[in-house]
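Reviewers of the previous submission asked for a worked example of the structure-prediction workflow described in the proposal, so we include one complete record here. The input consisted solely of the amino acid sequence. No template or homolog information was supplied to the procedure at any stage.
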Amino acid sequence: MDNKESNKKPGKQLKNVAALSGIAIQMGATIYLFVLFGKWLDTKYNGGEKLFIIIMTLLGVAISLYFVIKQVNRIKY
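From that input alone, the workflow returned the following structure tokens.
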């Protein structure tokens, strides 16, 4: 009855949990910074319209998802 899960080290599981929680913080910070940049672009070049904030928010989400997928693929089970 050798189960693979019983052979896992607790330190490795803790490391994976820490990495996943860090990913959430990184994703939120990336999206937030892109939103701020979009607001700045709108006030500077677009006269207060919301074109750049929408574009930059979507770009921030796409970039943060790309990095999340890269980091999750690196985590070993």
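The mean pLDDT is 85. We consider this example representative of the routine output the project will generate in years two and three.
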